[in-house]
Amino acid sequence: MLGPVILAASRSDRMRRLVSAAPVTKPVVDRFIPGETVDQIVPIVRDLTDQGLELTMDVVGEDITTPAQAEAARDAYLELIDRLKPLELGTRAEMSVKLSMFGQALDGGHELALKNVRPVVEAAAGIGTTVTLDAEDHTTLDSMFAIHEELRKDFPQTGCVIQAYLFRTEADARRLADSGSRVRLVKGAYKEPAEVAYQQRHEIDKAYVRILRTLMEGEGYPMIGSHDPRLISIGQELARTAGRKLDEYEFQMLYGIRGDEHLRLAAEGHRMRVYTAYGTDWYGYFMRRLAEKPANLRFFARSMVSKG
Fold first, then answer.
1. What b/e string do you get for 101-110 counting C-beta neighbours within 10 Å, with b at 16 or more?
2. Each residue's pLDDT tens digit, 276-289
3. Residue 101 above 50 pLDDT?
């Protein structure tokens, strides 16, 4: 089980220095993170939307230790939204945010994160789009859901993410489906203890299908976050069974993974949204991409051998 080892490495300063210094790292990172600045990412947004794809934008960075850093993260999103405004993309380009970046783990973090994320949600609404709150480890979720509920009072299109491997998620999905929420369902990418999460892949997959059925049969807007061909096929069938039209749900995949599938789904008329991250603090995001899928780790290892 390499995933937990890689996730542990994602929190190691020593591993951060080693991986960041390796000559091969940057070209491999570029596969998943296509830019470090707004100037670099705007042409990527134009290119993907010109191909019929939609985006959810993530400014990477999670090691927030001061309120000033949390405000800087807020300002980075506000800059991005300002730069997207002239493109007039509306909901074709939304934002994804981690509340840890907005100060959630600091003293008074719940109130601080809500204070910092609200201007981002307001600015996104101002250009005709919205924000999705990413899920992090299970200890942060009650705060995330409370902030989601508070934001939806004024901005009902604010979305959130739920993780199939957590035992609590089936109940969370029923509540969110009944409330008409936009919900992205993913398998889960954090190392969670057996007391709160399924540990075996087949158990996670079965939970994913149960939860997705709940979302499809509910009143909200399901967002299928998966690269798994079997789950994508099941998602299409569940949508048909629930009588959903093609614009009443969507697929979401990461930039750099299964790009041909992105285009295939879009060509079939599906809403296909690409999770596109950018920024200089890429290490934690990159390591989780390696942990989620063995093929990503093999890709990195092959590159190190071929370039070394």
1. bbbbbbeebb
2. 999 877 666 666 66
3. yes
**List of residues 6+ apart from 85 with CB closer than 8 A:** 126, 127
How confident is the model over 260-276, as pLDDT tens digits? Answer: 999 999 999 999 999 99
Q: Please tell me the pTM assigned to this model.
A: 0.87
SS3 annotation, 211-269: HHHHHHHCCCEEEEECCCHHHHHHHHHHHHHCCCCHHHCEEEEECCCCHHHHHHHHHCC
CB distance 49 to 274 below 8 Å: no
CA-based nearest residue to 219, from 188, 257, 175, 264: 175
Q: Are 20 and 235 in contact (CB under 8 A)?
A: no
Query: What is the pLDDT, as a whole number, of residue 19?
Result: 56
From the candidates 74, 118, 152, 184, give the one annotated as an active-site residue: 184
Residue 97, beta-bridge partner list: 133
Contact call for residues 89 and 80 (beta carbons, < 8 A): no
Told to judge if 298 belongs to the known catalytic residues of this protein, a careful annotator would answer: no
pLDDT, averaged across the chain: 89
Residue 5, helix vs strand vs coil:
helix
Q: Which of 58, 74, 118, 134 is catalytic?
A: 134
Closest residue by Cα to residue 306 from 22, 24, 20: 24
Residue 184 bears catalytic tag: yes
How many whole angstroms from its chain centre is CA 171? Answer: 21
Q: Which of 73-82, 181-190, 257-266, 285-294 has the lowest mean pLDDT?
A: 285-294
Given a contact cutoff of 8 angstroms between Cβ atoms, the answer to whether 291 and 6 are in contact is yes
DSSP code of 221?
A: E
